[in-house]
DNA sequence: CAGTGAGCGAGCTTCCGCTTGACTT
């Protein structure tokens, strides 16, 4: 017999709370939502006032069964899910699904997991807030309607299996628009002047001209003037400055800093944080709150006093800046701030260290600075040289933590400037004018995209990482490195009354771990923005959020709000299906000089391609796939024609032709009707016969080693050596050999057992099938 | 490992937000 059953969302949380509450309370977890809309069709009865059809998903059946049993036995059930829209809905679903007696059920909330907070919550129960639940139902139904009506339009008009949604489609749009800004950016060059001066005290003073000098001629002219000019210090300004620490981590800021400082992807960060959370080392990692509990501030205070002394202490309460924050939890912080380090893997330690430092720094003193600006006049020109210096007077929080930025050209660290007096004359040692270039806005990283989405109020802490994965899995976007290109720039140097001009080279535009939209992402984005402008609007989420708030405040009925949205939306879907044509991003590039036929680029059944001629021609059109880094919207006729230079005949080997081409699985060499894939470093347009023969021989050698064992009585069954070690091939199907078995010693009987066992487990679960599928499409794209 | 083409077949794909496993290909 249980006195009290408390239900929270997370098992780790349940464990902690149970300790606070004592033996009269049993604390269990619902593992998030326990019900969802039925997956078949819409799961919504449109004609019946948008009545949702809720079901318990398969993976939640056991949880529900368990909770139901305990709830029956308990005298009182306490629904302690989070204090936000989703949490309220979870409590409501539990109420319904577990068939709880309202007289025996209480709803409680707390947003920090401390003994006091929980005991206080137990003393102040309330009932379920139906309005807030309705706001969640509206959110859920709207997302389902948008996702499940838009995606099928894409299947028909662009390509099967694509997806669209309120969050992911906007994420892709941000990337596509940024990419176009980059592609259309016209870089301009200018000259940046830097002077090195001697002061009276024989030290060097470095100063810049802030104005960008536009042309080489103007730069030369100004340098000429400098030859004969007098340089005089016209102003020295010293003023104090300060820097304040950043707020403690939320999900989004943790992802950003872990990306910048530790190089983790957002998914990695979340997986590592989850481990730290489960082992009780940090507080909950999916949060939009910057708030710390009074207890946490207290422990931080003690740590700072012990480690750094009173001068370094300055406790603060931070307020959230982000739109739509629901603040059901605390900020992400160490559970026990006294623990400066923790046990665990290297990555866990590093992430914990980051969280510890950020938390401690947030309660430390401002850093005090002294900023110095020295202005130097040029006697025969209006431009001025300016030197900026910064001296740290007191380090404060900088002792433990410095926040990083996304800016690519990090400003040089400014140090102490030499002492000069106003009116002092300076001689130049040298003055240089370096050609610089304006730079396009930076492409997004995973983390900077999350930051942008959060600013727009789109997505939630629990969905940032999955959204980033989805848009990559759908092929809308790739995360990759791209090499830069060489660029020449000129350098004018004035020294010893002589001006020298030199040309130098540098690499520019190299990208690391950036998100690039693919052609399919661009085509889908254009199709959606053309036809469903409202939903792709950056303010769509913000405006529906306002309406959800109205529902939460009891000012609107939820189905009324949905109806107002759905009627015109659904009509738009039907009109688009009827009137818009297929969208494959087709562009006409020009005419093929050899045949005079038109050359076009578009998305084909196997990805972006170029084509000579059309399918109505007598002769079949020729096709070629675009290469990595090429885009439908930027490819030129010349680049397209280059792609048709395959297949190439390299010559003959052993009296048979050797041909190189690109197929479905990447570049290959064909010889004697056998195919050999090219290696990464081989270029199909440049490869020569010698190298091709080398590859053919390599493949032959591998094939020789391939067969481990065959059985005379069963020729269809073979033990082979593959990419992932030995395996059994039988009737065109492959079977894994269990770990630790010696493949060479397997008997026919054992092989049959393995085949039997595998085909049974193959049928096991549906989830397994889908993962296999995903993995396959992934490896296809890579090859 | 196998496979190297350019829309037949039948049926499936898909959303966002809560939460953690059970899977390795």
Structure explained in plain terms:
The chain has 783 residues and is an alpha+beta fold. The chain is built from 21 helices and 30 strands. The strands form 8 sheets. The protein has a 6-stranded antiparallel barrel. A hairpin with a 5-residue loop joins β9 (189-198) and β10 (204-209). The radius of gyration is 33 Å and the shape is globular. The chain starts with a strand and ends with a helix. Helix content is 37%, strand content 25%. It binds one DNA strand of 25 nucleotides through β3, α3, α5, α13 and β24.
Keywords:
disordered C terminus, single chain, six-stranded antiparallel beta barrel, 30 strands, 783 residues, four-stranded parallel beta sheet, DNA-binding, alpha+beta
Short note summarizing the structure:
This protein is α+β, with helices and mostly antiparallel strands and 783 residues long.
